[in-house]
Amino acid sequence: MSLLSPAVVHEWAQTALANLPPPAQQALLHPLVPKAIGAVLALTALRQTNRVLNTLSLNNLSTRTWDNDRELVLVTGGCSGIGKQIMTELSSQGARVIILDIQEPSFTLPPNVTFYKADITSSTALHPVAEQIRSEHGHPTVLVNNAGVGHDKTILDEPEAKIRQTFEVNTISHFITVREFLPAMIERNHGHVVTVASMASFVALGEMIDYCCSKASALAFHEGLGQELKYWYKATGVKTSVVHPFWVRTPMIQQLTDAGNEFKQPVLTVERVGNAIAKQIVSGKSGQVILPEKYWVASLVRAFPTWLQERVRALASADLLHLREWQEKQEKK
Questions:
Q1: DSSP letter at 229?
Q2: Does the N-terminal or the C-terminal CB of the chain have fewer CB atoms within 10 Å?
C-alpha cells in the first residue's frame, strides 16, 4: 500500500482528530469546515496558477541570466532611501552601480559605485551627464527609475510649483531617462527598466492627489513601455518591472511615522523594499512586485464595484484625516 494512499491519510486524520480537545473536534467536524478548506486550497491553487501565467506572459518564455561583468545598473535618487538600499544591496553582490541624484551622497561610496549629479527632470541637463557615463562606463543595462517626491496638501492648498515638481520627478523623468538609455538596450535586445511606483497607483487618497496621480501614471508608463518593447521594437530581451510598496520609512513620510501609533497603516523599511527590488533585478525577469505581498488584492481595486472602491478609498483617507486632526491637537497643546 502506498505511504500516502487515501486510506493512510484518512487513518492519520482520524488519529490526529482523536487527540484534540472535544471542542476542537466538534468545530472541525462541522459540515462547513471541509467546504472552507476546499475553498482555501482552490484559492491557493488559483493564485499559484495566476503567478505562473503572469510570469509566462510578461517574459515571453525567456529570462536574463545575471552576470556582474555584463551588467551596469543606473539608479535615480540613489543617495538616500530606497535608491540607496538598492545600490547597497547590488554593489555588495559585486554589481557595478551608477547613482544619478540631484543631491550629493553623504556617505562613502563602495568601490564599484559611481555618483553623477544630474537633474533628471530636464533632458538638456541629463544628456551631457549620460554621455559622460557612456564614455566612462559603457551603456547602462538596467535603469531603475526610483527618484520620487511627495507633498501633503489638498488640491486647493498645495502650491502649483509643488504639483508640477511631483509630476516632473515621479512621471516626466521616466520618459526622459528612458529616451536617453533605452535605445542601447533595444539595439542589444538586453536590458531591464524598473519603475518604482506605489500602492497609490491603485488607490487615490485625499491630501496626496498629485502623488497618487503621478504613481498611477508611472504604472501606465510601465505597461505601455512593455507593449512598445514587445510589439513595436521586437525587443523581448529587454525586461520591465514595476514595484508598488506601501508606506516606506523615509524622510518623505516622517511626519506620518513621527505620530507613532496614531498612524494606523503598515510602514515598510527601506531595507525590505530595496532588497526586494534588487532581487527582482537579479532575477532577470519582468514582473510586478507588491509590498507587503499580502496586499496584492490592492491591484484589483479598480475592478471592484464603485461602491466598494469608494469604501476602500474612504477607509484609507479616514486614517490620514484622523492623523491630521491629532496633529492639530498636539500643536495646540
A1: I
A2: C
Ordered by start, the domain boundaries in the chain are: 22-59, 64-323
- Which of 35, 117, 162, 211 is labelled catalytic? 211
Exposed, middle or buried: residue 52 (CB in 10 Å: 0-12, 13-18, 19+)? exposed
**Helices marked H in the chain:** 6-18, 22-28, 32-59, 81-92, 123-137, 160-167, 173-188, 209-227, 254-257, 270-283, 306-332
Fold for the domain defined by 64-323 = Rossmann fold (3.40.50)
pTM across the whole model = 0.83
Say if CB 194 and CB 143 are below 8 A apart. Answer: yes
Catalytic residue list contains 84: no
Q: What is the mean pLDDT of each run of 10 residues along the chain (333 residues)?
A: 59 68 66 61 60 58 83 98 98 98 97 98 98 98 98 95 98 98 98 98 95 98 98 98 96 84 88 98 97 95 95 91 85 78
Known active-site residue 215: yes
Residues pairing with 279 in the sheet = none
- Annotated active-site residue in 35, 84, 116, 215: 215
